[in-house]
Design goal:
It contains two helices and no strands. It has 64 residues and is mainly α. The longest helix has 32 residues. Keywords: Membrane, Transmembrane, Transmembrane helix.
Length: 64
């Protein structure tokens, strides 16, 4: 029986873990930026979200 466990090198696993960590940090930064924009806009942030949703739907329906 051929056992294929342990064929990844430690450096490869470290690169994967570091890439996942970088993606996680990027999402955290994006969440902070969006949260600060939302707090600046206050109640108008819902209107901005609805506007973006309408634009995306119109674009998907090829109305724009």
């Amino acid at each position: 029986m051929h056992d294929s466990r342990g064929e990844l090198e430690v450096e490869t696993l470290l690169k994967i873990v570091l890439a996942l960590l970088a993606v996680f940090l990027a999402f955290q930064i994006l969440q902070t930026v969006i949260g600060s924009i939302a707090s600046l806009l206050g109640p108008f942030f819902v209107l901005v979200q609805l506007g973006v949703a309408v634009v995306v739907v119109l674009w998907l329906l090829e109305r724009i």
